[in-house]
Amino acid sequence: MREVSKSFGTVQALRGFALSVQGGEFVTVVGPSGCGKSTLFNIVAGLDEPDDGGILRFKDRGCHARELLGRVSFMPQRDLLLPWRNVIDNAILANEIEGASRRDARARALAMLPEFGLAGFEKQYPHQLSGGMRQRVALMRTFLFERELMLLDEPFGALDALTRTMMQRWLLDVWQRHRRTILFITHDVDEAIFLGDRVLVMTARPGAVKLARQVDLPRPRTPDLVTAPEFVALKREILDAIEEEAMKSFIASTGA
Ligand SMILES: Nc1ncnc2c1ncn2[C@@H]1O[C@H](COP(=O)(O)OP(=O)(O)OP(=O)(O)O)[C@@H](O)[C@H]1O
Ligand SMILES: [Mg+2]
Predict the structure, then answer these.
(1) Which of 71, 82, 89, 239 has the fewest beta carbons under 10 Å from its own?
(2) Which of 38, 75, 186 to mutate to test the pocket of ligand 1 (most atoms within 8 A of CB)?
(3) Do 16 and 136 belong to one domain?
(4) What is the domain range of residue 211?
(5) For ligand 1, atom 12, which residue shows the shortest CA distance?
(6) Which of 4, 6, 8 to mutate to test the pocket of ligand 1 (most atoms within 8 A of CB)?
(7) What is the phi/psi pair of residue 148, to 5°?
(8) 0.90 cut: is pTM over it?
(9) Which tens digits make up the pLDDT trace of 189-211?
């Protein structure tokens, strides 16, 4: 994407955003609250068009955002499980909307349950699951909707630190096996570095790319990496960049 801007009335959420992602790459995105991260995802998911002048290309072809609808899989910021559907039927929702046979989709979902730590829970309803399990159902739905590009908007945002660390390792494991291209929004800098091939830091609103850093840490990533000097140095640099932007948006919001 190049020169992508998006305004909502007088609020400019994105301005001149540019990003190019390679197939199979895992890109993490951090930035102050309200800087336009979810807006960016809504555009890439085809739910919203950028303002005039924005250029989108998907697989070497220029396109409108709406042409991307259904071509990428998207896990929005809230898990959006339907309370009246059990685990399996929540997991196959996107496939069903797409017109897949319910029977086939259920069979595939059932086979995937153990990998997502949900074996034996197929008949449970969302209110019977822990927060971590609900997130895994939502992630499973995103994986089942087999698209090369996956957008994950703070998928672990609601989890406690320990569950979150487990989920990060688990996601990397699943990703190694299924190799999708992933764009991943988070507020957690450790998470961004631990997961990503590349970390993007966004500016305060209107959002643009402030900093992009390659993460040259070996894979598979092991938990002890977080204390490695390269990790710590990168974290310092990214935290400084975010803090600078967070201060700007704080000052703008308080009118100070
Ligand atoms: N549909 C909309 N209509 C009007 N304003 C919107 C709409 N969507 C987003 N905005 C505004 O655009 C700005 C960016 O919102 P966005 O949700 O993209 O931020 P974000 O970076 O995802 O924030 P957070 O980290 O809190 O999730 C905000 O000021 C928000 O109020
Ligand atoms: Mg958001």
Answers:
(1) 82
(2) 38
(3) no
(4) 4-71+148-254
(5) 13
(6) 8
(7) -65, -30
(8) yes
(9) 999 999 999 999 999 999 999 99
